[in-house]
Amino acid sequence: MAYEITVLTTMAISILFALSLNVITGFCGQVSLGHAAFYGIGAYTAALLTKSGIPLALALLPAAAAAGAVGFVVGMASLRVRDDFLAITTMGVAFLFVGFVRKQEMLGGEIGISGIPSVAFGRPGLLALSLLCTALFVLLTVHIRRSWMGFAFDSVADDEDTARILGIDVPRFKLWAFVIGTAGAGVAGGLYAHHIRFIGPDSFGFLESITALVMVIVGGIGSIWGVALVAAILSVLPLFLQFVDDYKLLLYGVLVFATVRYAPGGVAGLARTLAMRIRR
Amino acid sequence: MSLLKVENVTMRFGGVAAVEDVSLSVDQGEMLGFIGPNGAGKTTLMRIITGVLRPQTGRVLFRGEDVTRWPVDRRIRAGLALAQQIVKPLASLSLVDNVALAAGAHRMVSPLAALLRTDRETERAKAGALLDFVGLGDALSMMPTELPLGDLKRLEVARALALEPVLLLLDEPLAGLNQGEARAMADLIATLAGKHRGIVLIEHNVREVSRICPRIYVQDNGRGLVDGRADEVLASPELRRAYLGEELA
Amino acid sequence: MLLLDLGLQGLVQGAIYALIALGLTLVYGLLRILHVAHAALFTLGGYVGVIVTNGTGSLPLAILLAMVSVGVIGIGVYRFCYRPLLNRSPLVALIASIGLFIAAEEIYRLVFGPYGLSFVTPPLQTQVEVFPGVFLSHARLLVVGLSVVIIGILAWLSGSTRTGVAWRATVSDPDIAASFGINIEKVRYLNFFIGSALAALAGVMVALLNNLVEPTMGAVPAYKALAIIVLGGLGSVRGTLVASLALGVIESFGTIYIGHLLDRDAIAFAFLVLVLMVRPRGLLSRG
Ligand SMILES: Nc1ncnc2c1ncn2[C@@H]1O[C@H](COP(=O)(O)OP(=O)(O)OP(=O)(O)O)[C@@H](O)[C@H]1O
Ligand SMILES: [Mg+2]
Question: Does residue C174 fall inside a structural domain?
């Protein structure tokens, strides 16, 4: 039973993390190569708070706020730089985060933070909390999709200049995408810290950012259930297959490459095509 | 009252002055024809008015306010709309959604308000009516990539109209249409001018422009040449000179 | 002497950055693709260099073989990875490139083993006193010397040969270049060959300096070189050179003076983010 709980918690947290990037990259079309920084900010914030005695359920709010606040700043940056420049800026932010954390005594420096307390009701409690957060975030993104905010995001992702000519306040919508996405990553990070119970600078490196991006792209950019499905599978595959654990990056690399090359719509796109074939 | 005032605007690209010291005004309820040879700087002037381009010198006043430093979307929400010469459909949205988005843009000043609103039916209905109006009534759920250029031009017009502008800028809306279609479209545009709405119509099709526009402004090589009553402008020597070697010579 | 020493170390590092980043700039200038996988070619160059030197005892032969073989593989990367994606959004190619890069790192780990390789007898380790009290190894001098020579050759090639002119024409407007009968595809092949050969050279140089090649040695250069070409204004060769040297020097001073706040890599990216906030289109851009 304990094993199943671990697996499910891992899945839930990964889904939340991937879906949070999906808001920025999938919905709003802003590529971020540094999403793990926000995951990390949430993790460190929540870990420090729970270590000082605050229950995780409460600590997740400041974790989201801290990640969202930094996300707001990076979002401001996204208004100054575009496309390729933005991709590299977000990547820079991720390296900056890790480099900063490494040198901070208070955050445990290279060694990181260990002895993160367990959650009320232990592992099942954490699973319940993770499922709740992830479910809420799924509902939020489903709602965004249907709302006029999602409509505006569609236009920004499609062509910013045209969106502006149609009267859409592009910068404000981009900022919202960044804040929602990074706050979501902050919550995921807070949960992750209490799942692993040990965090260090290396837990939030560039590869974590890429992992999230892989999930979004392979799942199908912008598709909620496609991204969730792929996040769920990719996050727990290494637990079941030693081979996948050893060659995770090779698998990710090949998957991403094959997706953009042969199935640009990702899993969601493939499913749509398949559904259409069957209906005929 | 003057709806739009362009004052001594100059826009250079590198060494080339695409628009040079141009001044122009459009009144409420006015229908202005805007002609000039290729490369005259017509599109550039429209881009300056909407804020896509920032001129090196000069000002743009809209409804009495200096909007020179306003971003594009703010000008649009203040009542401007542009149907672009080079069509820019949002390729991932169907025709209705392209138009419905524009129809709802005014309500989306705040992202929070946008987040709280899910109903698209009002705007879709309005979009459907507008698409019908421009002659695309049977293509509502088609994707822009499936349409020929002439139809995309119509889409541009419908989308601009959905913004319910006080000043409508149309950059060559008749291009890509055959003679009969152009005539029908021009008639349709003529019905759009109202008591409160001004229209600027850029066209190479001088026949249609002179038919529906009481006033015509001519630009050549970035400079304003003549501006006045259509019949006088058409008879003026400046116009002949500008078009020497072109259709009127 | 510390200042001079730091400055020199910075310039050596900057020269290596320049060798890597030049190839990236060439690719970006031509195809508007952020070619992350370039760093995989850099790593491969390092491996070929070490293996051939250990096998034959000749460093020059190793450098030559590394440059040629990696250059050819670079052409392959273009032909099979980027060309099919050219008409898609440039971000697609960027993502594909990241995929290719992380896959390549794993393949090196599989093929060459996870612990890295070293020279059996590390060449060029003799120290020379370049200024009183300031020592540089032959290897470091070679890095600087080779960079200067190669950049000089490239400047000459692009300025005064037919190929160079064709290349510049293709960069500034591929359609017009094609209408003048320039074979764009050939220019691209050449571009990838030269860029990848330079990356291989940088790989061998880094192998010399550290006496080590490992599967992940490309990771940091990959991202830093991206930062550099972005700093340089994307596609500008001059900007890239300036940014490489500036970054090398800033890092070398930064590690000493603000090393307690940020680690070396973070300093580079702090510099990047700061510059982009003030000049969103790179160091040398106007406004
Ligand atoms: N973004 C730009 N960069 C450089 N030059 C430009 C740019 N936009 C326009 N130009 C130049 O400015 C001049 C005016 O162009 P513009 O498109 O405004 O003319 P136009 O009157 O709309 O012509 P047409 O009737 O062909 O549409 C042309 O010489 C054009 O090449
Ligand atoms: Mg024009």
Answer: yes
Q: Tell me how far apart the alpha carbons of residues A261 and A254 are, in angstroms, rounded to a whole number.
A: 10
d(CA A240, CA A32): 29
pTM, entire model: 0.88
In this structure, the strands spanning B198-202 and B31-35 are parallel
Closest residue in B to A161 (Cα–Cα): B52
A173 in reach of chain B (CB within 8 A) = yes
Closest to B73 (Cβ–Cβ): which among A143, A159, A168?
A168
Buried b (16+ CB within 10 A) or exposed e, C224-237: bbbbbbbbbbbbbb
Is C252 part of any domain?
no
- Asked: is B1-79+165-249 a CATH 3.40.50.300 domain? The reply is yes
Average pLDDT score over residue span B119-134 = 94
By CA distance, what is A162's nearest residue in B?
B88
Query: What's the full length of chain A, in residues?
Result: 280
Q: Which amino acid is at C127?
A: Q
| Residue for token pair 């799924």 | A138
Q: CB of A108 within 8 A of CB of C274?
A: no
- Ligand 1 atom closest to the CA of B44, numbered from 1: 18
Taking the CA of residue C22 and the nearest CA in chain A, the distance in Å comes to 17
A148, A155, A171 member nearest B117 (Cβ): A148
Helix axes A36-51, A83-102, angle to 10 degrees: 30
Ligand 1 centre to CA of B69 (Å) is 22
Round to whole Å and give the CA distance between C234 and A85: 9
CB contact under 8 A, A257 and C96: yes
Place of tokens 């430093």: B69
Q: Is residue C69 part of a domain?
A: yes
Task: Answer whether residue A15 shows pLDDT above 80.
Answer: yes
Q: Report DSSP letters for C50-75, one per residue.
A: HHHHHHHS-HHHHHHHHHHHHHHHHH
Reported ipTM: the value is 0.90
Q: How far is CA A255 from the centre of its chain?
A: 18
C44 vs C71: CA distance, rounded Å: 11
Report if residue C111 sits inside a domain: yes
Question: Distance (Å, rounded) from C-alpha A190 to C-alpha A9?
Answer: 13
**Cross-chain Cβ contact C106/A249 below 8 Å:** yes
Compute the average pLDDT of residues A31-52: 95
Into how many domains does chain C fold?
A: 1
DSSP string computed for C113-135: -TT-B--SS-SS--EEEEETTEE
User: Average pLDDT for residues A254-270, to the nearest whole number?
Assistant: 86
Residue B246 has a pLDDT of 52
Nearest Cα to Cα of residue C135 among C146, C144, C126:
C126
Domains along the sequence of chain A with CATH:
2-279 (1.10.3470)
- Interacting residues of B87 by C-beta distance below 8 A, sequence separation 6+: B149, B152, B153, B155, B156
| Ligand 2 midpoint to CA B156 (Å) | 15
pLDDT in tens, C96-105: 888 888 888 8
pLDDT tens-digit map of C21-58: 888 888 888 888 888 889 999 999 999 999 999 999 89
Residue in B92, B109, B159 closest to A166 by CB: B159
Interchain CB distance below 8 Å, A168 and B108: yes
Angle at B131 between CA B125 and CA B134, to 5 degrees: 145
* A-C Cβ pairs (cutoff 8 Å, strict): 136
Nearest CA in chain A to C106: A250
Mutate to test the pocket of ligand 1, among B10, B12, B44, B243 (most ligand atoms within 8 A of CB): B44
Q: Which of B157-166, C169-178, C200-209 has the highest mean pLDDT?
A: B157-166
The residues spanned by each domain of chain B are 1-79+165-249, 91-163
Q: Which residues of B touch A (CB under 8 A)?
A: 50, 52, 71-74, 76-77, 82, 84, 88-93, 97, 101-102, 104-111, 113-118, 120, 159, 163
Give the domain extent around C26.
Answer: 16-128+136-217
CA distance A148 to B115: 6
